Amino acid sequence: MRQVELGRTGLRVSEVAFGGIPIQRLTDDEAVAVVRRCLDLGVTMLDTAHGYGSSEERIGRAIAGRRKGLVIATKSPAREAAPFREQMELSFRRLGVDHIDLFQFHNVSTAEDLEKVLAPGGPLDIAREAKAAGRIGHIGVTSHKLEMALQMVDSGLFETLMFPFNYISDEPARELIPLCRAKGVGFIAMKPMGGGLLEDATLSFKFLRQYEGVLPVVGIEQAAEIEEIVGIMEGDTAFTAAEEARLAEIIEFLGTRFCRRCDYCQPCPQGISISTVMTIKSFVRRMPPDRVFGEGMRATVARAETCIVCGECAARCPYGLPVPEMIAQNAQWYNEQMALHSA
Ligand code: SF4
Ligand code: SF4
């Protein structure tokens, strides 16, 4: 795979990075096999997090004896000194490494989060000590909030930024990515396939390939997924006319009301599976009718009708989606589809 520069870190990495969320769903051996298949195909950057369950340990197992030449990235969501230090040390142990190439502050999406990260003696100071000691190579940050991301990139305190970017969530293309370029901050595109909602890998990766200096990190669960992506990256990455038409069609279908399924809107006091109802149209389009209109899904969607419009979910949604309105519309749409199906 082609190698790209990660901002001004001096790191050169494969043009697609491995995202370590989905391997939590596998057995240990399956996870190790998937990671190794990625390495065999030329993936040299692996990203995980303290919060991704077994992911760090499984990556550690997979890279044992193959560490050289890899860029290992992980993150901690801790905002206080003691838990941050503990989580960082745990990451070293789980990954089985004495050097982590990129350590990121996970999901810094509010001013309070940032203040805690920057507090004297807090997470940033601890990460800097580890960097000075040669245990960490670089310090980065991840976020879902555009205004916070802009502020953090502008601050010059972080060497990389991980932020959602795909052909639906394309807001970063306007200001954030150019700012990263100007500041020499490596831009890592999280959710290049919309957290699994954008199914056509060709469209997703050809879209991202247009942006110089953008490194997609993609969650991989099966070897076939990375094999397909590598094939796309190694082929002609210009859009064909048919692909452009399909891209426009999908963008129109999903519009600006695109749920990233991040579940930051939870918990709902009524126990509504918000992200499921928010993305039900995609589910109905992709899955066989017996699953789509089966008892389990009917009950899940019916629960949306108990919404008391408290607004808590909308206040928590990092994308500002009008959640109560959308789940009501989606539940109604689902009921109509079900009626059509049973007719
Ligand atoms: S507005 Fe409805 S869906 Fe949102 S948190 Fe309140 S009850 Fe749950
Ligand atoms: S509604 Fe917003 S917060 Fe909830 S899953 Fe969707 S994008 Fe995430």
The largest sheet, given as strand count, sense and whether it forms a barrel, is: 8 strands, parallel, barrel
Strand order of the largest sheet: 3-4-5-6-7-8-9-10
Number of domains: 2
User: Whole-number radius of gyration?
Assistant: 21 Å
Number of helices: 16
Strand content: 5-15%
Mean pLDDT: 93
Helix content: 40-55%
Write down the CATH topology of the largest domain: TIM Barrel
- What is the CATH C-level name of the largest domain? Alpha Beta
What are the bound molecules? iron/sulfur cluster
Number of E strands: 10
Return the string of H and E elements.
Answer: EEEHEHEHEHHEHEHEHEHHHHHHHH
What is the SS-derived class?
alpha/beta
Q: Which superfamily, in CATH terms, is the homologous superfamily of the largest domain?
A: NADP-dependent oxidoreductase domain
What is the CATH architecture assignment of the largest domain?
Answer: Alpha-Beta Barrel
Task: Describe, in short, the structure shown.
The protein has 343 residues and is an alpha/beta fold. The protein is built from 16 helices and 10 strands.
